[in-house]
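Page 42, continued from yesterday. The earlier attempt failed because a stray header line got pasted into the input along with the sequence. Redoing it now with the clean sequence only.
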Amino acid sequence: MNTTDITRLKPDTDLVGGAVAVLKKGEGRSLKAGGLWIYDNEIAEVGGGFEDGDIISVEDFDGYFLGYGFINSASKIRIRMLSRRKEKRITPTFLEDRVRTAWEYRKNVIDTGSCRLIFGEADFLPGLVVDKFSDVLVAESLALGIDRLKPLLLESLKKVLEEDGIKIRGIYERSDAKVRLQEGMERFKGFIGDPFDTKIEIVENGVRYQVDVKDGQKTGFFLDQKNNRAAIHKLCPGKRVLDCFTHTGSFALNAGIAGADSVLGVDASELGILQAQENARLNGLEDKVKFECADVFELLPKLEEAGEQYDIVILDPPAFTKSRQATKGAVKGYREINLRGMRLVKDGGFLVTCSCSHFMEQELFAKTIREAARGARKRLRQVEFHTQAPDHPILWAADESYYLKFYIFQVVSEQ
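This time it went through. Structure tokens are written below.
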């Protein structure tokens, strides 16, 4: 499939090649349960010629049709599925329908001023992430097959949004994640189309932010905590708040705008702190929302030693593990910050704690928090539990789409 002029293809052009992958007998259990991935060791053979990135047919060992997906012999995830129905062959119209379905879903579940429009497997477009920040799109492509379809999908997305009166003025690509190397792809970031100012102002939960889509983390801003940030508003009026791993200040600013008396946001990134300070000024909160560049693991014991106490402590760290093998070390890190955080909460105050690692499963995260509470000699009363915002939907049978765990606890001393 030549992608040079893919956006000029006729709507009914069939993009499925002639190759057929046949699974080994007894394999494909995850696929048959609703998953979208087929691993290299599950395939008996691939008949017919293909290039990596091509869309091919998939059959079970006995010839039973299983669907269409794109193949990449350089990846352990050999095939990522696009369709299960034989009559639903992959065409530009099929892909536009997928994009339209994703947008209609967002309109029903989230404020679409800024939101995630495409969330990979959870929107049945494996490997593609697209975030909308006001009138700018930021795209991330993590798989070869979807990379080849990307121009067509982005044009379809612009068309679908324009039907609702939303004119996109620019697209920036942030395909610079290391995981692309595992797909045999180079890392890339840059404009798709005409250049534009990559610092975008957005408003979320009444808070104004400058989002740097070029140099910020991931696609520029963590949209997945939108509803969780809103959840702390009712706790914050008149309170003293500590926000750890503040990044560009999102939880700290939500606390400030909700009426906290004082907020301290902490992060090890100097760039993040500079952006957080700018965001505080943007909201007129610079007098009561302060930021400090420091290592949270080093700062928390110092605050405890100094006798500091807070009404609310927020822990929103980056993923401590990106592999199952590193989970043991991650547990130690989560236990440490939660124990230290609990000790800094006034009796009857609140701990807000999160994990954004897919491999830190909910049961393990809860067990780790429980152990931290025992070590801190605190009792926890669960106030709320949430996952990621609904524009990052969790597709059951596709475990990789579930990653964010968010708790609010009241922290009380042993009674």
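Notes: DSSP finds ten helices and 20 strands in the chain.
Reminder to self: strip header lines before submitting.
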